[in-house]
Each structure stands twice: as structure tokens, then as C-alpha cells.
Specification:
Rossmann fold; about 35% strand; alpha+beta; 20 helices; about 750 residues; six-stranded mixed sheet; eleven-stranded mixed sheet; Immunoglobulin-like
Length: about 750
């Protein structure tokens, strides 16, 4: 049958011997019958209608030729397909996989597990496999990844046990996918059976049809080891609270009842604790508390003693980063009278779930009223403002006289200059002289010289000094030109104060269209007092009070975005307003990928798409790594993967840009440690490898009995049953037949004198 099909021009490769065949029609057999019932009578009728006077024998010959042609044509029109099955010879392949993870570096009597493999190769193991099968084995090394090894590297035994993790399941799948399961005689895996990541090998290897033979190093005893591990260490704590750190110490061939753990914070001694072992146990837990009494980022390092000749000292120390932050953005307002401006500011701040407001307003000489998150409380006499000021990130002053501020004046100055408090000063019906600021500490914080104050009661509009403002909270519209136009069309201010001038270092953020004695008067002015930010709004009302007169088509959201981001900037939390870095953990491991996600928002507190995010990562020696983030399916989220090459503290800085303008930056830290999972269970997993070999049809042995593996490998050529579909219309011989039949009929008719 193979020869007949080849004669018709059908390609059967790679099938050489046909085992079975089946014919199928695209239209089905019923379609063929119906087509013949239509075409054969039509052909018969058309032939009889010619009215020619010929012999019956001639008529039958010509009619038979025509009907055969019609039947072949109808058969081909139905789309005939022949499915043939046969055995296909396969090229034999054999794979040898060598485990190069760090657990293979474990030594006994100065001989490591990988040294035993080296002796096995030196004894001619690869040559024995080649002599038995007639093929040179494909050699691979596997740990973090699977890599092919050249013949020269095998002869020189160019292997090193430096892999940080082992994935036996994925390694076998990769090799089978690369070589083809149907062509493999088997896989010889030389390993200690320690699988630290990936799927469970017992389940993953149960479905493969290729025999997997395991060779394990000889286990003559193990070196003693102490290991220290942390259980999900905290990454963040809140001020004036505490966090609890839990961990575990494990023993291997060590007899002791207690192990001391030394804890250091930023390189200095912090506390010492211990892990106490019960009789007959090899693991013991420990815990200690860290009080969060100071803001900032702290590096904690834990260490246990190192034994002489220990398995490894890398698992005797570990660490983590702890960032202590304020739980919320706290805004405190002090008013000499009730004000709609402060009310609108409070409403805007409540749009941020992380903002908390407290507003103290003086009603009479000794009576004050307080509202927290716009919820009023009972009036009190002469309140103590110290506690609220202590946790405040931003202080808003609205018609607050110096008498009101006198008890906390020094604390305000100290915190502003230290950069832990931002100051926002709103305009009032009283000038700074009437409020009593002249000659006081508060006057030192003002961005203007208050010697001469003139109220200009002329309505005017806001004007941005430049389209390229460096302050994100002033970018309410993404397009710079539209942003300037938006500020110009906001509700008019009713008036503005004119001062003698600006102090050195002060900067105009928003101008006005109201002209003073010399020039246009500034509406919003900023300055620096030490490390802190101070902002003065010289006129008003600022925008919302004018809604009732000139409503905008953009609603309340631009105003709330302006207020929220401005307060974050005043509180020195500029990065929180626009860009933030999200890490899955504050620590990672050498050679393992760490996902870095960056969230970007625009000036309206809306997640920003199509931004350009660049990362700069600096390690402890000062080496820089640059990465670019890719936008994810989540709006405003960008992601990159960082694979560190060495341990230590890595500082991350993310810069976000959109349409050529910088949206902001964010900073974070990542502590990188050496992975020690390969040493957590240093015992060779002989029972696991024996089970895996049995499940896949292989055998398990040790390096000193590797000859059993050579004897067990089947060297006969492999075959597999393969099927192939052949379109019968694709034949040169059938085409010739279809052309010859009408020509034969025409020839017979011509020699008989017919037309």
C-alpha cells in the first residue's frame, strides 16, 4: 500500500511501514451518494439525447468512460482524506543532569557532594553510557536554571555548586521539552534530592513516560550546623506603637539547650534574646518587641554564634528593614474666628482616607470649640494644644492672634525648622500687626516683610507665573497651557494684601491680576524655614467661596486635589502625592527576582496611565543599576523585576515622567540576603529519589554503584506510532486520469465518425 500511495504522488514521510488506514470524506458518504444520484442520471440523459445511430457496444464503451469520469470527479468533490498510521523510527537521546545547587557543596571529611560526582565522571561514567547506547549523552546542569554543558566542559568538569535554589520538577520538564520525550532512552539525574522551589516532584514526575534514573552522593555523615530564620518579619510600624518579631533557630547534629540571638539596630546593639530547645527537639522559636518611638527607616540584623567547621555560616545571620511612619496625615488648624475657608479645606482633606483634621477655633477670650474630621465637640475653656500639635504634620493659621499661639510658639518654630511640621497661613480681616506677630518668633517664619500691610479690595483672578511649574500640586490639568487657563478662569478673589516685599528665598507660586503700587500682587507665596515649608495665601477667598457666584464645570475634585497635595508637600511628603513604590517584601535574596511596583497619580489624585517610570538602584559599594518599568493591566501601576547580584542594603529611587514633565519621585530600600534554603535540610533525600525513580520506571543508586544505571538503560532503537492525513485530491496521477478520460472519449468518437 505504501508503494501504491507513493505512485500516486502522496508524501508519507516519516512513515515507512503502514500499520492501518482509514478513508474519510469531508462531505460524508451520504454526500457522495446524493451527488452521484444527481450527476450520473444527468450524464446518462445528456448522452442519450445526442440521437446518434451507433452500435450498442460502442454506446456502452463511451457511456462507461463518461460515467467513470463523473464518479471520479464526484469523489474528489467530496474532499477525500486518507488517514494512515505507522511506526516511525526515533533518534535515541540520553540526558545526564547534574545538580549544581549550593547543597551539593556540603562536605564530609573535606569531600563535597559535587566532588563525588567529579570522581564519578573521572571514572569514565559518560564513556560507559556512550558505549552502551552508541550515542553521546546530552549533559545539563540545573539549579536556578537548566543549562546545557558542552563536551569540553564535561571533560574538564566545569561545574560549580553555586545555585541558590533547586527545582527538580521544572528541570526535568525543560530537558524533556528540549530533547523530545518520544526520542529519549532516559534521564540520569545526579542529585542529593533537595528541591527547594517549584512543584512537588512526586506529583510532577508521575505523568512522564521517560525513565528517570537517580544517582545520589554517598551519605557517610553530615557536618553540624546552626540556622537562624525569621517568620515574616515586619516591614512597617506606626509611631508610638510596637511591632513583634518572631523567628526560629534550627539545629543539625548539634546538642544544646539554648542558643543566644544578638539583635543590632543600624549596626548598634539593640537587644539579646534566646531560643530554648526542649529535650529531643531540633527547632525552637523566639520573639522580641521593637518599640516604634521614632520615625525613619531602621535596619535590624540578627546573629547567632558560629560553630567551628560548621556546614555554612551564611544562615547564622539574617536581617530586615523596618520603616516607622505616622499612621495618617494629621492637619491641625487654629482660628481666631469661624471661617468658610477652613471649612472648605476640611472638606477637601476628607477626600483622602489617610488625612485626619482637628480644628480649634476661639469663640471668646477663654472659650474654644473643636471639631475633629468636621465633627464638632463640646466647647472648652483654655484647652491644651500641645498634644494635638505634637502629632500634627501641617499647621493652618487663620486669624490666629499671637496670644493664641504664645503657649506653643517655640514648639512651632522648632518643628518647622526641623522639617517635621509644615505651616499654612490664611488671610483674615486682620493684618499681621493687628494679630501681634511683629517682633515674635512667628514673624521669623513669614515669607513676607510685614512692616506695611495694605488691603487691596479689588476683585481679581489667579495667574500662574509659568506654564512649567515645578510643584505638582499646582498641576491640576495635565496640559500646561490648559492648566494656566484653568487657574485664570477660576472664581475671582475679593481682595489681597500688599506687603513691603518678599523675604530673601521666598518664591511666588500664584500671582494675581490685582496691581499694587509697583507690580501685580502675589497671591500664594512659599519659603523655607530650616528644613520646613511655609506657605502664605495673601488674599481670598481662595476659590470655593466663589462657587455660588461663578461655578466651574470641573466640580470640587480639582480644589480637593490642590489642598490634599499641597498639605502633603507642606508635610515633606511630596512623594506620597504623586509616586509611591510598592515592594512585596522589604528584603530579598541574591539571584532571585524581586518585583518592584510603582504607582503613579496625577495632580488630581487620579491614577496616571502612559507614564515613563525609571528606577535607579544603588547597592552598598555604590554600584548603580538602571531599570525601566512596564505598565501593567492595573491603571497607574508600573512594574519591573530586579535580580540582585550581591547582599546588602539596596536603595531604590523611582522617577515618573508624563509627556516630558516630571510627576515626582519616590524612594525605598530593599535588604538583600544570601538564600540559605539549600542548607535548611542538608540530609540527602534518598527515599524521595527512590520513589521518583520507581514512579517513572527508573532505578535509584549511589555514585559508588553507578554501573547499575548503565546496565539498566535500554539501548534498542525507539519507535512511536504516528498518524498522517493525506488529501487524495493532491495527486498528479489523478489529474492526468481526469484529463485523459475526456480525451479518450473524444478519440473514440472521432474514429467512429461521430462529432
Amino acid at each position: 500500500m505504501h508503494s501504491i500511495l507513493s505512485l500516486f504522488g502522496y508524501n508519507l514521510n516519516p512513515i515507512r511501514n503502514i500499520e492501518s488506514s482509514a478513508l474519510a470524506l469531508s462531505w460524508g458518504w451520504a454526500g457522495l451518494v446524493l451527488l452521484l444520484l444527481a450527476l450520473v442520471p444527468l450524464s446518462w440523459w445528456a448522452y442519450r439525447c445526442e440521437g446518434k445511430n451507433i452500435s450498442d457496444k460502442m454506446r456502452r464503451q463511451l457511456l462507461a468512460i463518461r460515467i467513470v469520469w463523473v464518479m471520479i470527479l464526484a469523489f474528489l468533490m467530496c474532499g477525500p482524506v486518507l488517514v494512515v498510521s505507522g511506526w516511525v523510527p526515533q533518534r535515541n537521546r540520553l540526558a545526564v543532569m547534574v545538580d549544581t545547587s549550593r547543597s551539593m557543596s556540603i562536605k564530609h571529611k573535606e569531600t563535597s557532594r559535587l566532588d563525588q560526582v567529579k570522581k564519578l565522571f573521572a571514572s569514565g561514567f559518560i564513556k560507559q553510557l556512550e558505549d552502551k547506547t552508541g550515542i553521546y549523552p546530552e549533559v545539563f546542569s540545573f539549579a536556578d536554571n537548566v543549562s546545557p554543558v558542552s563536551r569540553q566542559e564535561v571533560e574538564q568538569f566545569n561545574f560549580s555548586a553555586d545555585g541558590n535554589q533547586t527545582d527538580i520538577s521544572n528541570a526535568v520538564r525543560n530537558v524533556i521539552g528540549n530533547l523530545g520525550e518520544g526520542s529519549m532512552l532516559g534521564i540520569v539525574m545526579i542529585s542529593d534530592g533537595v528541591s527547594t522551589t517549584g512543584d512537588n516532584p512526586a506529583m510532577a514526575l508521575s505523568n512522564i513516560r521517560t525513565p528517570v534514573h537517580f544517582i545520589a552522593p554517598v551519605q557517610e555523615g553530615e557536618t553540624a550546623d546552626l540556622a537562624l530564620h525569621l517568620t515574616r518579619p515586619p516591614a512597617q510600624g506606626y509611631l508610638n506603637s510596637s511591632v513583634r518579631v518572631r523567628g526560629e533557630v534550627s539545629l543539625h547534629r548539634v546538642a544544646t539547650s539554648s542558643v543566644a540571638i544578638t539583635v543590632r539596630r543600624n549596626g548598634e546593639f539593640f537587644v539579646q534574646t534566646s531560643a530554648d530547645f526542649a529535650s529531643g527537639t531540633t527547632k525552637a522559636g523566639f520573639a522580641f518587641n521593637i518599640p516604634c518611638d521614632e520615625e525613619g527607616s531602621f535596619r535590624f540584623e540578627l546573629e547567632i554564634p558560629t560553630l567551628t567547621g560548621e556546614l555554612t555560616s551564611e544562615n547564622n545571620q539574617t536581617g530586615f528593614l523596618l520603616k516607622v511612619v505616622r499612621e495618617r496625615l494629621n492637619i491641625m488648624a487654629l482660628s481666631g474666628r469661624l471661617s468658610w475657608d477652613v471649612k472648605f479645606i476640611g472638606n477637601a482633606l476628607l477626600t483622602d482616607p489617610n488625612a485626619q483634621t482637628v480644628h480649634w477655633a476661639k469663640l471668646r477670650d477663654d472659650r474654644w470649640v473643636c471639631s475633629r474630621d468636621l465633627k464638632p465637640e463640646r466647647a472648652v475653656r483654655n484647652p491644651d494644644l500641645t498634644e494635638d500639635l505634637k502629632i500634627a504634620d501641617v499647621l493652618i493659621l487663620n486669624a490666629a492672634s499671637h496670644d493664641m499661639l504664645r503657649p506653643v510658639e517655640e514648639e512651632i518654630l522648632r518643628r518647622v525648622e526641623a522639617g517635621t511640621l509644615g505651616l499654612l497661613i490664611l488671610p483674615s480681616s486682620q493684618g499681621f500687626a493687628e494679630l501681634g506677630y511683629q517682633g515674635t518668633l512667628i514673624e521669623k517664619l513669614l515669607p513676607v516683610a510685614p512692616g506695611r500691610e495694605i488691603w487691596r479690595g479689588t476683585p481679581g483672578n489667579m495667574v500662574l507665573p509659568s506654564t512649567e511649574t515645578p510643584y505638582n500640586f499646582l498641576r491640576l490639568i495635565d496640559d500646561p497651557i490648559q492648566n494656566v487657563e484653568f487657574f485664570a478662569t477660576l472664581p475671582k478673589i475679593e481682595g489681597i494684601y500688599e506687603y513691603d516685599g518678599l523675604k530673601p528665598g521666598s518664591e511666588i507660586l500664584i500671582n494675581s491680576t490685582i496691581r499694587g503700587n509697583a507690580d501685580l500682587l502675589p497671591l500664594m507665596i512659599r519659603s523655607r524655614a530650616g528644613l520646613g515649608n511655609v506657605m502664605l495665601i495673601a488674599g481670598g477667598p481662595l476659590w470655593p467661596a466663589g462657587f455660588r457666584l461663578v461655578p466651574t464645570d470641573r466640580g470640587f475634585s480639582p480644589y480637593s486635589a490642590l489642598i490634599v497635595n499641597m498639605c502633603k508637600w507642606l508635610a515633606n511628603r511630596r512623594e506620597d502625592a504623586q509616586v509611591s513604590i510598592e515592594l512585596a517584601s522589604s528584603r530579598g535574596y541574591v539571584g532571585q527576582g524581586n518585583s518592584i511596583r510603582v504607582w503613579v497619580m496625577n495632580s488630581k489624585n487620579e491614577l496616571q496611565s502612559n507614564a515613563q517610570i525609571s528606577l535607579t538602584i544603588k547597592d552598598e559599594p555604590g554600584n548603580l543599576t538602571s531599570l525601566f518599568c512596564i505598565e501593567t493591566s492595573e491603571k497607574g501601576c508600573y512594574e519591573a523585576t530586579f535580580v540582585p547580584a550581591q547582599r546588602g542594603l539596596h536603595r531604590i529611587e523611582a522617577t515618573a515622567r508624563y509627556q516630558g514633565h516630571e510627576l515626582g519621585t519616590a524612594k525605598s530600600e530593599l535588604l538583600i540576603e544570601m538564600p540559605t534554603a539549600e542548607f535548611d535540610e542538608p540530609v540527602i533525600k534518598e527515599s524521595l529519589m527512590a520513589q521518583l525513580a520507581s514512579d517513572t520506571g527508573g532505578i535509584f543508586t549511589t555514585v559508588d554503584q553507578a554501573a547499575k544505571i548503565v546496565a539498566a538503560i535500554d539501548s534498542e532503537p525507539g519507535q512511536k506510532l504516528e498518524s498522517k492525513s493525506i488529501d487524495l485530491r493532491d495527486s498528479w496521477l489523478l489529474l492526468i486520469i481526469l484529463l485523459l478520460l475526456p480525451m479518450v472519449e473524444w478519440y473514440l468518437r472521432r474514429i467512429r465518425g461521430l462529432s
